[in-house]
Every structure is written in structure tokens, then in C-alpha cells.
Q: What sequence folds into this?
């Protein structure tokens, strides 16, 4: 009996522990109820502002070269794709993680633009929630952290990074960069596992976007605030090493693409200083935002003076208050250091600044501002912060909604850019002209393309777009002149040689046309352009009655796309003309099953059946 009683007594605590554990779990959830509510508010705000982008299409601006006209990316996860992700520098940036992310989208989601936009919005939501969690975990200030995360989530300056699919790299750098910051702070007590996670996250960050490399300096700054300890510079050495490698690869990639700005060093210095003031101005008043801000050889002195004054004032203030208000120094250096690689001191191309460059820097700046208001407002915090935060959130959300709507198409996006930046925006005119050509609105397209060439007579793609517009109007000699100018400016463009061959074919200069296309093929082409090149060569050789070569080219086009109907139809008729009746019957049979209403194919099948009998 005693033994049974002791067993009963022994069993009770085990059950009690389980009940207590369950109670603790519910208690922890209840304790975090307020945090969960704030997080839910931030998440909902992201979807309310950016959810409209799920109805947007791919843009020609950036998205065509990276996604819709990139067969390697569209093929999904392949060994060729993995090598491409590591070796490619098409965008002027080294971004293997971003390439793999896009490949994953195509593998899982296909070519549905809305699904790709969903991923962008989801990543941005995760970044806002990560920022909120990081600040709450290390400051305990729920409402201040929530306000920083909310303003970060819905600020109009974030629109370019979220609504533009080509900027996936910025969102991924934000995701891994913020996760790495959290892991770095967790490793402050000597935890090697969290330290290794921080290093891995940082590596993924710079492999998403090399511009995020200054996080190697920012992580140790977080040790002081909000970490509350001395910066761990020795442990940051691996980060600094990775940073140097990433920046070196990024600069090499940019120079290989030819993206180095033509502006001299003094103009770049002036633009960098002026841009700091302009960036801060758009943070406070985010109006007149554009997809492209043209570079400038001459910067107004008042802009340079204003930028310099703001730089000196805020840097001096944050250093002066580094003991009493350490969050000012952390927030300001977070902003300034992450901007440094993209201020144009190192040549970046023909743009003066870009909204997307502020994606991660904005998190540091907002943190410093909100904590600064709190420190000044003091006992009025309960009134000042909610009023300030509420008004700012409503204004930013309204402005961001409107700015996001411009990203629904190339024409509306760059017509807005022209209104903001003025008529001297070559990229805007070029993009509008190209979009109008695809819509067969050639007259309007020519106006924009002529202006683009006036603004930058050395930009080869504008001549190629002009050639396409003239070709559609059957002005083939003018089109050929434009293509010859494009080749003179950029003899490495394989696509231009193919376009030149198509124009020469229209002028009945068949051998020259064939040779021009062959040159483009030897230089290397995207699969879709390659398929068109083979088809055009097949048509040329067919007209010259060189049937064996024509058959070979049509077959090569079909190897790229077995469903290329016109290539198969011309292959079938070429077999017929060369009296290869059995081969012709096979191809015509496939055509009839694909399109039984094609009268030419039906008549050819009747003829063949009679002939073979």
C-alpha cells in the first residue's frame, strides 16, 4: 500500500509540471499580445499599400533582361542556372542569391507576374516584422519599435524596391541583413552558434546585393546601442573581409558592364554631398519621386551647401550626444554608411540617385528619429509620439499608394518621371519610345526616341529602338542607318547584328543579311533571339533555293522551341520543294494536328497523299 501511495505522489508533480508548462506557454502568448497586435498592424499596412502590385505586369525596364527575356532564369533550378547566378554581372552588380531567388520563382510559379509580385511584397513584410522584433527584443520599447517598423514598411521611398521585380536583391539583402543583425546581438554573450549564423547571414546579404557591405561596420555599432556593450571589432574581422571581397566583385562587375559614369571626380563629389540632403528631404517629404534621376555634370551650389551643412550638423550632433543618446549615432551611421557605396563616389552610371538605395538606410534613420523624439518629448511621449506617428503613417501610406500605382506599366512610370525630372531624361524617353514601338504607336515612339538620341548621342540602345520603329514603318534604309550607328557605338551587341540581318533581308540583300545574323549567333544570344535568328536564316536560304541549309536552320529553331509553328510550317514546305515527300508528310501531319484550320497545310497534305500514292 505504501509503495502504491508513493507512486501516486510521485506521479502528481509530473502532471503538475505539464499543467504549469502549458500555463506558462499561454502566459507567454498573453504577455506578447500587444507585440502581436502591433506586428499584425504592420503586416496589414504592407498589404494595403503594396497589394495592388499583384495586378501589375512585368516591366520592360529591367524585368525584360533579367526575367521575361532571360531563358536561363526562366528554366528554374539548373546546373547552368547555378553557374549563371555565380558568374553573371548583367545588371552591373554581383547578386547570385537574387538570381537563384528569381529562378525559384519561375520553377514554382511560372511566368505569372502577380505571383512574382506577391513574393516581393511578402519579403518586404518579413523585413518590417524583423525590424520590429529586433528593436523590441533589445530595447523593450514596443510602441516606438512598432512605429519605426510601420513607417519603414509604408514609406513611399520603399516603393521602388517592392513594386519593381528586378529589385528583389534589395529585399533579400534586407532580409538577411536584419536577420544577421539579430544573430550578431544574440552572439554577444559568446554564443558561437549565433555568431556563425550572423556570419552566414551577412554572406548571404552581400551575395544578394553588394551595396549592403557596410553592415560589417554597423553590426559592431549595434553592440553599443541597443546591445549595451563595447563594440566587438575583433569578431567583426571576418565580416570586414567578406565586405572587401563583395565590394571588389561589385565594382569589377560594374566596370565589365560599362556602367562607369562619364562625370569627373569633382562632379561626383558634389553630387554625393548634394544627394545626402536630397535623400533626407525625400524622407521627410516624399513627393516628386521618379524611377530614374538623370546624372548631372553640374550640381547647383546651393544644393551642395545644403547637403554639406546637413551632413556636418547631424554628424556633429550624433557624436556630441553619443553618451546621453547613443541611438542617434547608431541610427545616423546606419543611414550614412549604407548610403556610402551608392552615393556615386565610386562610379555608378548615368544616374544621380535612386529611391531604392534608401531601403535599408531608412531603417537606421527612422530608429534614430523616433528614439530622438522620445528623448526630447519626455513626459509628453504618450501624446507626442502617437500624434506624430499617426499623422506620418497616414501621409506616407497615402503617398506610397499613389507612387506604387505608377509602377503598373513602363509608359505611365516614365511619363511620371518626365514630369518630375524634366524633359532632359534620356532613360525616360528611351523607355517610353520602346514601349510605344511594341504597341505599334510608331509616330509617338519616334518623337521620344529622337529626343533620347539628342540627349545622349552615344547610347547605342536608343539607335536600335529607333531602327525597330523605322522598320515597322517599312523605312528600311533609315532603319539600317540606325543599326549601323548602334554597332559603331557598341560592336559587342549580338542582338543588333540580328536586327541588322532582318533589315537587310527586307532590302533583299540576302547574303549580307545571312552573314550579319551569323555573326550575332557566333557572339552569343538569348534563346528567344537565337530561335528568331535561325528562323530568319532559314527563310533567307529558302528564298535562295538553298534547301539543305534552310532545312538545317528551321530544325535548329525547332530544337529551341518544338512548338514554333511558323518554323515547322516553313520546314514542311521546304521539304516539299526539295521533293522530300515522306519528311514533308511527317511535318504537315504535325501541323494539321496543331492547327486543322490552316488551309495551306490542308491543301499540301492532299497533294502529298496523291503524290505518294
A:
Amino acid at each position: 500500500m505504501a509503495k502504491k501511495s508513493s507512486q501516486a505522489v510521485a506521479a502528481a508533480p509530473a502532471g503538475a509540471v505539464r499543467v504549469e508548462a502549458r500555463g506558462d506557454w499561454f502566459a507567454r502568448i498573453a504577455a506578447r499580445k500587444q507585440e502581436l497586435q502591433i506586428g499584425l498592424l504592420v503586416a496589414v499596412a504592407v498589404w494595403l499599400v503594396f497589394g495592388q502590385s499583384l495586378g501589375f505586369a512585368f516591366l520592360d525596364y529591367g524585368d525584360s533582361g533579367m526575367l521575361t527575356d532571360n531563358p536561363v532564369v526562366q528554366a528554374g533550378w539548373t546546373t547552368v542556372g547555378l553557374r549563371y547566378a555565380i558568374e553573371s554581372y548583367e545588371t552591373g552588380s554581383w547578386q547570385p542569391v537574387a538570381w537563384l531567388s528569381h529562378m525559384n520563382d519561375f520553377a514554382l510559379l511560372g511566368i505569372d507576374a502577380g505571383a512574382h509580385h506577391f513574393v516581393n511584397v511578402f519579403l518586404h513584410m518579413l523585413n518590417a516584422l524583423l525590424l520590429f522584433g529586433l528593436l523590441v527584443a533589445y530595447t523593450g520599447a514596443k510602441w516606438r519599435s512598432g512605429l519605426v517598423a510601420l513607417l519603414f514598411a509604408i514609406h513611399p521611398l520603399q516603393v521602388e524596391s517592392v513594386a519593381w521585380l528586378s529589385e528583389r536583391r534589395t529585399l533579400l539583402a534586407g532580409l538577411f541583413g536584419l536577420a544577421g543583425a539579430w544573430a550578431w546581438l544574440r552572439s554577444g554573450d559568446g554564443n558561437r552558434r549565433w555568431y556563425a549564423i550572423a556570419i552566414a547571414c551577412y554572406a548571404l546579404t552581400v551575395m544578394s546585393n553588394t551595396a549592403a557591405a557596410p553592415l560589417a561596420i554597423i553590426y559592431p555599432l549595434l553592440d553599443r546601442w541597443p546591445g549595451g556593450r563595447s563594440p566587438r571589432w575583433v569578431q567583426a574581422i571576418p565580416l570586414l573581409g567578406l565586405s572587401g571581397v563583395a565590394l571588389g566583385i561589385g565594382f569589377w562587375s560594374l566596370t565589365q558592364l560599362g556602367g562607369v559614369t562619364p562625370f569627373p571626380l569633382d562632379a561626383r563629389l558634389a553630387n554625393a554631398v548634394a544627394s545626402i540632403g536630397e535623400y533626407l528631404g525625400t524622407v521627410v517629404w516624399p513627393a516628386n519621386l521618379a524611377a530614374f534621376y538623370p546624372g548631372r555634370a553640374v550640381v547647383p551650389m546651393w544644393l551642395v551647401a545644403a547637403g554639406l551643412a546637413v551632413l556636418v550638423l547631424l554628424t556633429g550632433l550624433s557624436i556630441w550626444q553619443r553618451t546621453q543618446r547613443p541611438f542617434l549615432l547608431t541610427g545616423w551611421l546606419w543611414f550614412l554608411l549604407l548610403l556610402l557605396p551608392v552615393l556615386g563616389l565610386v562610379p555608378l552610371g548615368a544616374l544621380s540617385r535612386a529611391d531604392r538605395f534608401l531601403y535599408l538606410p531608412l531603417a537606421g534613420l527612422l530608429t534614430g528619429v523616433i528614439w530622438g523624439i522620445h528623448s526630447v518629448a519626455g513626459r509628453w511621449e504618450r501624446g507626442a509620439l502617437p500624434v506624430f506617428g499617426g499623422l506620418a503613417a497616414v501621409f506616407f501610406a497615402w503617398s506610397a499608394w499613389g507612387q506604387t500605382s505608377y509602377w503598373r506599366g513602363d509608359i505611365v512610370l516614365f511619363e511620371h518621371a518626365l514630369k518630375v525630372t524634366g524633359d532632359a531624361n534620356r532613360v525616360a524617353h528611351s523607355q517610353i519610345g520602346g514601349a510605344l514601338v511594341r504597341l505599334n504607336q510608331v509616330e509617338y515612339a519616334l518623337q521620344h526616341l529622337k529626343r533620347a538620341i539628342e540627349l545622349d548621342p552615344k547610347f547605342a540602345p536608343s539607335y536600335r529602338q529607333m531602327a525597330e520603329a523605322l522598320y515597322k514603318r517599312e523605312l528600311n534604309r533609315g532603319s539600317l542607318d540606325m543599326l549601323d550607328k548602334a554597332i559603331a557605338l557598341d560592336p559587342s551587341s549580338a542582338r543588333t547584328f540580328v536586327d541588322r540581318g532582318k533589315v537587310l533581308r527586307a532590302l533583299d540583300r540576302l547574303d549580307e543579311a545571312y552573314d550579319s545574323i551569323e555573326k550575332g549567333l557566333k557572339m552569343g544570344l538569348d534563346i528567344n533571339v537565337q530561335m528568331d535568328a535561325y528562323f530568319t536564316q532559314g527563310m533567307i536560304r529558302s528564298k535562295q533555293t538553298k534547301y539543305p541549309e534552310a532545312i538545317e536552320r528551321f530544325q535548329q529553331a525547332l530544337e529551341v522551341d518544338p512548338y514554333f509553328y511558323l518554323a515547322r510550317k516553313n520546314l514542311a514546305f521546304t521539304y516539299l520543294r526539295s521533293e522530300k515527300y515522306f519528311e514533308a508528310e511527317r511535318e504537315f501531319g504535325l501541323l494539321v494536328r496543331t492547327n486543322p484550320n490552316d488551309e495551306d497545310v490542308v491543301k499540301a497534305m492532299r497533294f502529298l497523299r496523291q503524290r505518294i500514292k
